[in-house]
Amino acid sequence: MAAPDLDQIPDVDIDPDGVFKYVLIRVHAAPAGQSKEIVRGYKWAEYHADIFDKVSGEMQQKGYGCECLGGGRISHQSQDKKIHVYGHSVGFGRAQHSISTEKIKARYPDYEVTWSDDGY
Question: Minimal CA–CA distance to 95: which of 36, 14, 44, 22?
Answer without folding.
Answer: 22
